[in-house]
Amino acid sequence: FFFFCLLMFKRKEPPPPNPKDVIKYQKREMRKNQREMDREILRLQREEQKLQMEIKNLAKRGRDAEARRMAKELVRLRQQQDKLRQTKTTLQCVSNRATAAGATVSVSKAMAGATRAMTAANAQVDMNSIQKTAMQFQQQSEYMEMADEMLDDMFDEDEDDEETDSVLQSVFDDIGLDLAGQMKSVPQNQLPQRSTETELTPNTEDAELNNLIAQLM
């Protein structure tokens, strides 16, 4: 029971910090430090103005030794301001690098997520099935193209026949004939022909009669 209680109340290790949260916190702290430096620079500038006025007053009164000491203090204040400005610039550079690092982390996570998604998708893909489907698609496409060409040729022939009939009908209309009647009564490869029967003359008819009588006798 004692060990069970220890296990129950044992402190859990905190999860690892999120890089984005860490970067956000550090940037917030750096901005805070920069604001403090700005306030310190303003304070030093006010001190500098006071020292300048005191140095002028001492110089007017001929107190050169005190004016010299104040001048040294003025130089020291200006040096402090320069150092604070340099430190502020350094913090700004660090903040920019932290922003870039955060962007790198975001891109890295995005790439990792995309890689996992692509890996899962590719695991579901059967390359042999895709290749087979592509071949079938190409084959069916070729069949469809062949069928379209055959239909186009057939319709072209029908259109040619219709145009031919139209031309013939126009010609027959000019000469007073009916194309439909001609096509039904006469084969297409044969033109209407005139009758060449020879009329029987009286002499021919008499000769045939005499011939028939001779056979009967």
TrEMBL record:
The keyword Coiled coil applies. Signal peptide: none annotated. It comes from the Eukaryota. This is Charged multivesicular body protein 2b. GO terms for biological process: vacuolar transport. Residues 27-97 form a coiled coil. Keywords: Coiled coil. The lineage of its organism: Eukaryota, Amoebozoa, Discosea, Flabellinia, Vannellidae.
